[in-house]
Amino acid sequence: MTNTATQLDLSQLAVNRDQPAKSPVKFKRSWLTRYMLPGGILVGFVGLFAWATRDSFLPAQSITITPVVVSRAEIKQEGTPLFQAAGWIEPRPTPVVASSLAAGVIQEMLVIEGQHVDKGEPVAKLIDIDAKLALAEAQAQHTLQEAEVRRAEAALVAAKTNFAKPLSLRAALADAETLLSKTELALGNLPYALEAAKTRQHLAEENVRRKESAGAAVTGRILREARAELATATNTFNELVAREPMLRSQFRSLSQKRDALAENLKLLTEETRALAEAEANLAVANARADQTRLRVEIAELQLERMIVRSPIDGCVLSLDARPGQWLTGVGSSTSQGSSAVVGLYDPKYLQVRVDVRLEDVPQVQIGQPAQIETAAVASLIEGEVISVTTFADIQKNTLQVKVAVKTPPAVIKPEMLGKVTFLAPPSPIVEQEPGESPLKLFVPQSLVTTGEGGSNVWVADLTAGTAKRKAVEVGRGATDDGLVEITSGLQPTDKLIVAGRESVVEGTRVRVTSEDRTLSSGSWNTRGGQPAARTAQAPQTGS
Question: Where are the compositionally biased (Low complexity) regions (predicted)?
Fold first, then answer.
């Protein structure tokens, strides 16, 4: 270390101050470099500062903006397999039950499982002896009541005849008039009869006096005869005298009777009552006949229901009863027993009940095509989604979906297991032309204004700090989230004015106070070929 220091020449660092220093050359400064150049630089800095802070001094409308929703349409080709799920085959929509409409005991089963039956074909027979006896009793009662109807009809015919031609009243009136005429005639002849009787009485008295004055010349027998003749004449005269009041009373009575019969013939009171009563009796008889006829029909129906028939054309799925079993019949109030006899299904209408995982449920749509695989058929079977049930299976974490079998082969039967491949349905998005951008632009429908000049939206020009009205073309209808597609007129980086656009005009200076992302959030996202939305971020400026 000492040796190295001794080797340095420190004399080279010394300054010779004996020689005078040379003075620098002095130049004369001009006013341009002395004043104008610094002033220009200062003015430039002031102008740049003023331009950068112009938004703080110039008046501007406060607004809220929202970005444009940009999506990339991912379209799956129609018929592309989406997912698979297992299930089992069953009748569509449900099995059909052939039930007994009448209560009774099964005597014989007429079909077996898997047998094809036609609509109305017997499938079981009940013991029908009671139904036959009930029918015979009802028929006998109906026959008896029909005889009552005929009797009532005959009575009605007689009542109508008596009403139309009251011959009995006319005969009674004629008899009364005859008796009245006879009485009137007798009353008119009574004075003459009294005069004759009085004359005979005088003659008889004169005859008796002459015979009594003759004395013994007249025999006693002749005298007695003369006295008897006098007594007879006297009695006849007295009788005629007493008959006059009786004849006058009889005349008055017959006159009243004749008048009453004439009035009754005019009014026909009894005949009218008899006619009405006969009509009522016939109506009652007909009603009772209808009741008995209904009883006969009920008994016939009950006897017919002793045969249980198939309600459809199909195959026997299950035998739900056996011979000797008691059936309650449809509509029975008892809770014991059953009315089901045979389970049926139509082999032309089958479906697959599929357990779909919950994560695959959003890809299921009504009318979606599907392919069905089963061990009984080597080829694939075409299917179609017809319904999605409303209750999920908590244990399996699945939801049941029903897939209709379009053309069921004859070999597939209910309860067979199958696997269903769900295919992509026709996409509602039109396939893009070659060279077309795969990006789709969407904006909230509430921000699109439609007028005579077409549709337009208010956009914030962040570079110029002004509001601009842009004409746009609206594509398909609004989505469930209220977004509409914009086919032209917007850029992915455009910012739409949400709040404050009511008071702006073209070129109005605006100041962005906040950005609203609720209207264009990424929640608008569906499956099955629909675009998944995202918001476009505006490029960051140097400011």
Answer: 527-543
Stronger pLDDT, 524 or 424, i.e. the higher one: 424
CATH C-level class of 96-127+307-343: mainly beta
* Residue 86 parent element (H or E): strand 81-91
Q: Would you identify the CATH topology of the domain 81-93+349-423?
A: Elongation Factor Tu (Ef-tu); domain 3 (2.40.30)
Q: What would the pLDDT profile of 117-175 be if each residue is shown by its tens digit? A: 999 999 999 999 999 999 999 999 999 999 999 999 999 999 999 888 888 888 888 88
Cα–chain center distance at 473: 43
Q: Which residues contact 279 (CB under 8 A, 6 or more apart)?
A: 156, 159
Task: For residue range 366-376, list pLDDT tens digits in order.
Answer: 999 999 999 99
Q: What is the pLDDT of residue 11?
A: 58
What is the DSSP track for 338-394? B-EEEEEE-TTSEEEEEEEEGGGGGG--TT-EEEEEETTEEEEEEEEEEEEEEEEET
Q: How far apart are CA 191 and CA 188, in angstroms?
A: 7
Domain 61-73+437-535 has CATH 2.40.420.20: yes
Q: Would you give the DSSP letter of residue 216?
A: G
Bond preceding residue 438 cis, omega within 30 of 0: no
